[in-house]
Amino acid sequence: MKIMSSYAMTIDMYQRQQKNRLEPVTIINRQQKTLNSNFQIPGLKQPIKKEQKETEVFADHDDDYEYTPQEHKGGSWRSAFHN
Fold first, then answer.
1. What confidence tens digit (pLDDT) does each residue in 64-79 have?
2. Cα–Cα distance for residue pair 59/42, rounded to 1 Å
3. What local confidence, expressed as pLDDT, does residue 17 receive?
4. Quick check: 7 and 15 in contact, CB under 8 A?
5. 83: CB partners within 8 A, 6+ apart
6. pTM for the full model?
7. Residue 80: which residues within 8 A CB-CB, separation 6 or more?
8. Out of 35, 64, 65, 79, which residue is the most buried by the measure of CB atoms under 10 Å away?
9. Rounded distance, CA 20 to CA 14, Å?
10. How would DSSP label each residue in 5-27?
11. Is residue 61 pLDDT above 80, yes or no?
């Protein structure tokens, strides 16, 4: 284990030395990040429909359905799934 930690420290020190040897870089010409702002994917925008059909509204039906909520037992979703 001592050999591995010595090897890792050697690599880290080498990387630091190489990084410190680099001279600062000055950027002279900055180009825009967006090269083409007019690009559009064809067919992405759907045409807007002007006419709307009337919707049929159904009457409410109570078919003697009783809702009984489950009790929350806590724990993860997996334990709730398996029980």
1. 777 777 776 666 655 6
2. 43
3. 92
4. no
5. 73
6. 0.30
7. 73
8. 79
9. 10
10. HHHHHHHHHHHHHHHHHSPP---
11. no
